[in-house]
Design a protein that fits this description.
This protein is mostly beta strands. The protein contains no helices and nine strands. It is globular and about 40 Å long. The two termini are about 20 Å apart.
Length: about 120
Amino acid sequence: MHITRLRDAKAYSAARHFNMTGLRLQGMEASPTQNFWVGLSYFLPGGGAESSSAAVERVYVVTEGEVTLITDAGEETLRPMDSCHIGPGERREIINRSNAPASLLVIMQYPDKTAK
């Protein structure tokens, strides 16, 4: 078992994100997780992520506040405990249109499951 306490989680930089702080909870440099990593993203009002895609699938879970996800299929606003799956190659944009910070749990497989 490997525990990462929130107070000990290390910040990481996420490409094409703005007004956002990400904390690594599991995987990568935070733990020996083999197939995926988990992060916690804090988006300030107006913060978000530019439109982009990844070669791997992702799951987002809003834990506080609300964020809007924009995809080629349209847009949806997620609120606490709403979740979504973004498939490999699917483009998405994230924006916090509210006046309150939002927290988003990110679960993402490694591009190569054997590499961290």
